[in-house]
Design goal:
Rossmann fold; about 15% strand; elongated
């Protein structure tokens, strides 16, 4: 282990954060090719750290921890999966959100000193990248001087964003993005030093799940263990932006049989045809036996005697199953390029599926079968199976099927209990499939063809 590796290991609390897995996977090397730090997300990932920057700005374990956490968040967010062209203003807003999040995770003075000493509260917009001086971790008592010196016509908007980032009120990423970029001059933002690597192939490069899936999984497990603030910031990452797009459904005949078979296993039904059950059905039939009904009453009032009356009988017959299978479809960024085939399979098997299809990324978006035929997709670009478990728990879903590439995160705690107690099928689809995350909760699995 080299000196820089020892420093990184020493900055984390002992016995936590799955660091041994990270250090086995990532080479930690000194490099003057990056201004601060960066993760090369390739087959053999490397964590590059500039030793001069460390000696000047992160020469204490608490400060180095904040730098590493900032960079790992860039790894997870994958900014370019949500924006085709990332501007200086975009990168600036990314760092505003990340710095506020890690500050609320570790509000101790020794940790915050990394940001408060690196960024000045007397310069705008630089002051937005750091918490207030003598911040209590919950609310903003005094605004940075640079914000107080702004003209009245923009001070109110900037103050609202800043107070929300560093207070219990919270703020969504979209709100930050809507307000700040129109107030930030591109040339001014371009000279503000940002942490991490914002280049094309750096840690914020898109499609990380496919470029380095093992790294993504390890980093995700580390971040899941980080202490969360008591009142997390709403929309603390880019993964909270819901965007709508459309795809052209592509029907693959074999997928109909594969998905239908899986759905029938989840529904505890066998054989061909629709999912049905035995039940009582009321059938209306004419009868000569006098009965009181509306038609005979009217005829008698007109002086005519009816020959037949409207009667009914109850028959035992096979009826369509009332509670069909709830289908959750992964529409995250890693599913790009295969959503058309999945939508084709959904259309082919719609009679086995609940009235709504549940699209999930970091949140659930219900769409009708008509929307599926139109190819409507609503996604944040991120992935988190917790929203699926929460939806199942809230709505009492007992039979469910998840269509995904498997990169959804391992269900834990109450989420794992909810999914384990339900009858759950998983249909895997994708160019890089992960069958580990859901292996402990899936009762039946299948693989769709692309």
């Amino acid at each position: 282990m080299n000196a820089i590796e020892e420093q990184v290991l020493d900055c984390f609390p002992s016995g936590s954060y799955a660091l041994s897995a990270l250090l086995r996977l990532v080479d930690i090397v000194e490099s003057d090719q990056v201004p601060t730090a960066a993760v090369e997300c390739r087959i053999q990932p490397r964590l590059l750290i500039n030793p001069n920057f460390i000696s000047r700005h992160a020469n204490a374990p608490e400060r180095l921890l904040m730098l590493v956490m900032h960079e790992l968040h860039h790894v997870l967010l994958g900014h370019t999966t949500l924006f085709e062209t990332v501007t200086y203003a975009d990168n600036f807003v990314f760092d505003c959100v990340i710095n506020a999040l890690i500050s609320r995770m570790f509000p101790q003075a020794d940790h915050l000193a990394f940001l408060t000493e690196f960024y000045s509260d007397k310069k705008f917009p630089e002051c937005l990248l750091r918490p207030p001086t003598r911040w209590n971790g919950n609310s903003v008592r005094r605004l940075p001087r640079a914000i107080r010196d702004l003209p009245d016509d923009c001070q109110t908007d900037v103050e609202e964003v800043y107070r929300s980032l560093y207070s219990e009120a919270g703020i969504t990423y979209q709100e930050v993005y809507d307000i700040l970029p129109r107030l930030l001059d591109g040339d001014v933002v371009a000279v503000v030093p940002l942490l991490g690597e914002h280049g094309k192939n750096g840690s914020n490069g898109g499609d990380l799940e496919n470029r380095s899936p093992v790294l993504f999984d390890v980093v995700r497990s580390i971040v899941e263990e980080w202490p969360q603030p008591p009142d997390p910031i709403r929309g603390r990452s880019l993964a909270d932006i819901i965007k709508q797009e459309t795809v052209s459904a592509r029907s693959i005949p074999s997928n109909r049989a594969i998905l239908r078979s899986l759905l029938m296993k989840v529904a505890d039904k066998a054989g061909a045809g629709r999912i049905r059950r035995m039940g009582d059905s009321r059938m209306f039939t004419p009868t000569p036996v006098p009965l009181l009904d509306r038609r005979s009453t009217v005829l008698r009032a007109l002086g005519a005697e009816p020959l037949f009356y409207s009667g009914s009988t109850t028959l035992r017959r096979r009826m369509p199953l009332a509670d069909r299978v709830h289908v959750y479809v992964d529409v995250s960024g890693s599913m790009n390029g295969i959503k058309d085939a999945i939508y084709g399979a959904l259309i082919d098997c719609r009679e086995w599926i609940d009235s709504d299809v549940h699209l999930f990324s970091n949140t659930i978006s219900d769409v009708s079968h008509r929307d599926i035929r139109k190819g409507i997709v609503k996604t944040t670009g991120g992935t988190d199976v917790a929203c699926v478990a929460s939806h199942m728990r809230t709505n009492g879903v007992r039979r469910a099927c998840i269509i995904t590439d498997g990169w959804v995160g391992e269900p834990r705690g109450g989420n794992r209990t909810t999914m384990s107690e339900a009858k759950l099928g998983v249909a895997y689809a994708g160019h890089s499939v992960n069958m580990v995350d859901l292996s402990n909760v899936a009762d039946h699995v299948a693989t769709l063809n692309l």
